[in-house]
């Protein structure tokens, strides 16, 4: 997978060189390029922002450097064009389902906003020649899109074949497709007792079916308690009319 990230703080993306994503880059599973948006400016001050039309606080990222950056990074149109992801708290909420979908792409471009964000015309213009999504990583506001890009890249890259040692661990996780919308059950390792807290007895039983049942019950309890919104709505009970014989 090819990944381009455009930011005015390219160093913010350095952590991608560490750990499993870093290894995926070293192994050639991911080809990552981080670009400085100021490379596409032409004035002495390398300006990327200006005051908002219509007034208001803060500065807005000008469209020209973004337009030129995207022209360079995605010159072709049609099949095989990259998918552009513009980071914004006003975007579609990022999810595991979206990570699974993005893991099937060949080329992703991440646009990291700063200040009050990117001029709205950038997404419209890019949308004429490539699939373009505005994405939010949650209902809160960060200073810039770099951390949001880090989050999405990590969630996507760990799903690529060869990145995680045991691919089964990906299918059994919270939020993974096929987990019936359940959070993961509580997990334990050695020692069997720690600070007076015991590992549940059932996990030593070696009885796989009973362990699976126990885990399923714990996962359901946990999901009901913490994230009832994840569970599908319970269908309304149908009304049964009983006629009495007289
Ligand atoms: N004025 C914008 C608004 O109210 O929607 C917020 C701009 S924010 C201070 C600056 C940049 O941080 C955004 O352009 C975006 O790239 C990034 N950002 C902030 N919060 C984000 C979030 N929850 N998800 C994705 N990107 C975010």
What structural category characterises the helix and strand content? Answer: alpha/beta
For the report, how would you describe the main beta sheet?
5 strands, parallel
Total helix count?
7
Assembly annotation: single chain
Q: Output the helix-strand order.
A: EHEEEHEHEHEHHEEH
Q: Cofactors and ligands present?
A: S-adenosylmethionine
Distance between the termini: 75 Å
Please state the CA-atom Rg, rounded to the nearest Å. Answer: 24 Å
Chain-wise SSE layout:
Blueprint: E1 2-7, H1 19-26, E2 31-36, E3 49-50, E4 60-61, H2 63-73, E5 83-93, H3 96-102, E6 107-111, H4 121-127, E7 131-136, H5 146-157, H6 168-171, E8 193-194, E9 197-198, H7 208-226
Parallel strand pairs: 1-2, 1-6, 5-6, 5-7
Antiparallel strand pairs: 3-4, 8-9
Helix pairs in contact: 2-4
Notes on the protein architecture:
With 246 residues, this protein is of the alpha/beta class. The N and C termini lie far apart (75 Å). The protein is elongated, with a radius of gyration of 24 Å. The longest helix has 19 residues. The model has no long low-confidence stretch (mean pLDDT 94). The chain has a five-stranded parallel beta sheet with strand order 2-1-6-5-7, with helices on both faces. A two-stranded antiparallel sheet has the order 3-4. 28% of the residues lie in helices and 17% in strands. The site of S-adenosylmethionine has 20 residues, from strand 5.
């Amino acid at each position: 997978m090819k990944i381009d990230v455009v930011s005015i703080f390219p160093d913010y993306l350095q952590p991608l060189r560490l750990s499993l994503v870093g290894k995926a880059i070293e192994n050639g599973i991911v080809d990552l390029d981080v670009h400085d948006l100021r490379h596409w400016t032409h004035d002495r001050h390398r300006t990327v922002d200006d005051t908002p039309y219509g007034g208001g606080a803060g500065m807005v990222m000008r469209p020209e450097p973004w337009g030129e950056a995207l022209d360079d990074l995605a010159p072709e149109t049609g099949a095989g064009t990259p998918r552009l992801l513009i980071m914004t708290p006003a975007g579609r909420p990022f999810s595991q389902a979206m990570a699974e979908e993005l893991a099937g792409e060949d080329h992703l471009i991440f646009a990291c906003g700063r200040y009050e964000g990117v001029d709205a015309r950038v997404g419209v213009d890019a949308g004429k020649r490539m699939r373009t999504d505005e994405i939010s990583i949650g209902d809160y506001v960060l200073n810039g899109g770099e951390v949001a890009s880090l989050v999405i890249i990590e969630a996507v890259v760990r799903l690529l074949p060869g990145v995680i040692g045991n691919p089964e661990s990906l299918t059994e996780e919270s939020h993974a497709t096929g987990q019936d919308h359940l959070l993961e059950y509580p997990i334990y390792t050695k020692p069997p007792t720690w600070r007076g807290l015991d590992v549940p007895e059932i996990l030593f039983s070696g009885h796989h079916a009973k362990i699976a049942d126990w885990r399923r019950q714990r996962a359901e309890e946990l999901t009901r308690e913490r994230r009832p919104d994840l569970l599908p709505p319970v269908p309304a009970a149908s009304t049964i009319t009983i006629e009495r014989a007289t």
